[in-house]
Automatic annotation (TrEMBL):
CDD domains assigned: UDG-F2_TDG_MUG
Organism of derivation: Amycolatopsis bartoniae
Name of this protein: Mismatch-specific DNA-glycosylase
Domain Uracil-DNA glycosylase-like: 20-181
Pfam families attached to this UniProt entry: UDG
Key words, A-Z: DNA damage, DNA repair, Hydrolase
GO molecular function: pyrimidine-specific mismatch base pair DNA N-glycosylase activity; uracil DNA N-glycosylase activity
UniProt cross-references to InterPro entries, sorted A to Z: MUG/TDG, Uracil-DNA_glycosylase-like, Uracil-DNA_glycosylase-like_sf
GO biological process: base-excision repair, AP site formation
Taxonomic lineage: Bacteria, Bacillati, Actinomycetota, Actinomycetes, Pseudonocardiales
Length: 184
């Protein structure tokens, strides 16, 4: 487990940095964040900010046998899971991204899906998904159609800023995805 807590200076220096994907061929589910926050940029780990509810939701929904620390992100691969982002650059807030960046990120993501062929893509953030893929009416849940052979599911953003999704309702939505694409 990591105890590294970036300083204000390290967080500021993380603006615009990138972190590597946790990805491999044939995953059951590839989770796709919007983009790394500054905390993730500083640590090099996805969903790293304390208070982000991704890791608790992943465990509470049954995807992982215990709650992983962000520093253990590579262990997801052994469970058929991976993580990438729509936009690679770290920002303080997702609203710093332009629509053009999100659309370009969607195109890059399609290339990754073609290369790695996960069973399901789970985008965490409905607004970003709508913009990236030109689906303005998309809702949380399973999406109609697929990208190549990859099914698509949209999950709520697990950021603490998305407070109308409680830890329990986030876990329920993650569990709906797991039941459909992971446990079969």
């Amino acid at each position: 487990m990591t105890s590294f807590r970036p300083t204000k200076e390290q967080l500021a220096a993380a603006h615009g940095t990138t972190i590597r994907d946790v990805i491999a061929p044939g995953l059951r589910v590839l989770f796709c964040g919007i983009n790394p926050g500054l905390y993730s940029g500083a640590t090099g780990y996805h969903f790293a900010r304390p208070g982000n509810r991704f890791w608790p939701a992943l465990h509470a929904s049954g995807f992982t046998p215990r709650r992983f620390d962000p520093s253990e992100q590579d262990e997801l691969l052994a469970h058929g899971l991976g993580i990438t982002n729509l936009v690679a650059r770290a920002t303080a807030r997702a609203d710093e991204l332009t629509d053009a960046e999100l659309r370009e990120g969607g195109e890059i993501l399609v290339t990754k899906l073609d290369r790695y062929r996960p069973r399901c893509l789970a985008v965490v953030g409905v607004t970003a998904y709508r913009t990236a893929f030109g689906r303005p009416k998309a809702q949380v849940g399973e999406q109609s159609g697929s990208i190549g052979e990859t099914a698509v599911w949209v999950l709520p953003n697990p950021s603490g800023l998305n407070a109308h999704w409680t830890p329990a309702t986030l876990a329920q939505e993650f569990a709906r995805l797991r039941e459909k694409f992971y446990s079969e």
